[in-house]
Amino acid sequence: MDRAGALRAALAARGGPRLPTVEWPESLVSTSDGLKALARGGAPEWSTVLADAQTGGRGREGRTWVSPPGGLYLSVLLRPRFAKVGLLPLAAGVAVAEAAAELGVVTELKWPNDVLASGRKLAGILAEAASGPAGVEWVVLGLGVNVALEASAVPPEIAGAVTSLAAEGVGPRPISEVAVAVLARLGVCYDALRSDPGAILSAWRSRAAPWWGGLVDVRTADGPLQGRLRDVDEEGALVIELEGGERRRLLSGDVDRVRPV
Ligand code: BTN
After folding, report:
1. Do residues 135 and 225 share a domain?
2. Fewer CB within 10 Å, N side or C side of the chain?
3. How many domains are there within the chain?
4. Would you list the DSSP string of 49-105?
5. Per-residue confidence (pLDDT) for residue 150, from 0 to 100
């Protein structure tokens, strides 16, 4: 059995989602780009693409996701048939946080779905969707988890901001083991979104960095905002309260805590 087949078998043995296809080459430009092409061609839900390294890994807000060997680079195709699709990126963050916990690493979630350990980025999630007349047709969830990155493979300007499972004390693990843990947890969270979306929101809140009520800077497509972090609402939007009391719902952006000077 090749490694893609072994991954499918290990996930099935755990009772995880059945993956109709798994592609796992050594290198790709981006696993999400590859999978989006398959999605447009009608590929079934849970089709999965991994790569040992990416030459053009993409992050949120148009950023680059540095992707040398030593990371998990995985994209999975979902075709959600439920109302709360906006919670899917949060559910993915919960799934990765739960997989990290299973491996012994305590994490915090930063809206929408950065997974932090020791205050540094352990994993990131990029959710890309296509909609038609009936609503969302597919979502490609791209997950990047730093498993055992060589310090020399990370650009110095971001080295201080990232961590890995290895740096957090996890012994050597095959990437496939991390992939199985993430996909199994994602399967459970995805089912919960259909049956009990409130449970996902509660799980997200309980794992969130405890910045509630504190001042945050948010970089949005329309410019920077500063306000007090109030909530994440039932659609997954961030709610901040501006000076003067106005509440704003944000659907995308980057949040940072304002530290006292
Ligand atoms: C973020 O900015 O935090 C999201 C990072 C998402 C990276 C993953 S790695 C697998 C998939 N392929 C990509 O090109 N990006 C995502």
Report:
1. no
2. C
3. 2
4. EEESEESS-B-GGG-B----TTEEEEEEEE---SS-GGGHHHHHHHHHHHHHHHTT-
5. 82
